[in-house]
Specification:
Blueprint lengths: L1 E4 L7 E2 L7 E4 L5 E8 L3 E10 L5 E10 L5 E10 L6 E15 L5 E6 L6 E5 L2 E6 L5 E5 L4 E14 L4 E10 L3 E13 L3 H25 L1
Antiparallel strand pairs: 1-2, 1-7, 3-4, 4-5, 5-6, 6-15, 7-14, 8-13, 8-15, 9-12, 9-14, 10-11, 10-14
Length: 219
């Protein structure tokens, strides 16, 4: 995970989720990571789940709170280095629900993307494949303790290299004293090669023929 808060003298932070916070293996083979980072002007917390396999997926619940009085830019990215060795096309599905909350007794909360970038981009092997919440994206929560929610999804195909990575990035401006939560999911299912797809269709047709023949013998 990479994290950058504008105006923070510590600069960008690059951490391995297995080394920060807690992690645990789940019954279905996935691994879930939880943790939080704090400073005087911001708070970051996450719950990130990784599933390996033919259709690897990355899911995260990420919450950012701007404790300062000023609007601030934040950048966060979660990247998983895939252990898979095969090369091939992938169908990438990227979806997110964004929840913005005004934590003050007055005023509004505002979330805004960079002028030339979508709010969230999905990547395979460092190449952007999909994006959601096109620029310039803005979300407002109007009134004391108001909440605004928006959702978006996108699908696209791309190539995943051996030992490559998958992940998503987000850069945004968050108003002072407010909080935003991203619930984001990305999956990268393998796309069968045309020859393999033809063999699958032939096998399916033969299977249907055998089932019809069985029914005739029993009737």
């Amino acid at each position: 995970m990479r994290w950058h808060a504008a105006g923070d003298p510590a600069g960008p932070i690059n951490v391995n989720l297995a080394d920060v916070g807690d992690w645990a293996e789940m019954d279905d083979g996935g691994v879930v990571y939880t943790g939080a980072l704090f400073s005087d002007t911001w708070q970051l917390s996450w719950t990130t789940t990784v599933h390996d396999g033919p259709a690897p997926s990355l899911e995260s619940l990420l919450t950012v709170t701007n404790h300062s009085d000023d609007d601030r830019w934040f950048t966060t990215g979660t990247t998983w280095e895939s252990p898979q060795s095969e090369v091939g096309q992938r169908m990438v599905d990227l979806a997110s629900s964004v929840t913005l909350m005004n934590l003050d007794f007055a005023g509004d909360a505002t979330l805004q993307s960079a002028p030339d970038e979508a709010l969230i981009g999905g990547y395979l092997s460092d190449q952007q494949i999909a994006s959601i919440f096109a620029p310039i994206y803005t979300l407002h929560a109007t009134g004391p303790f108001a909440v605004a929610i928006d959702t978006a999804s996108s699908s696209a195909s791309g190539s995943m290299e051996p030992g490559g990575s998958m992940g998503y990035w987000s850069g945004f401006l968050l108003s002072g004293g407010d909080t935003v939560t991203f619930s984001t999911t990305m999956s990268a299912a393998a796309i069968p090669a045309p020859g393999a797809l033809g063999l699958l269709l032939i096998a399916a047709a033969r299977g249907r023929g055998r089932r019809r023949g069985t029914r005739r013998c029993l009737s």
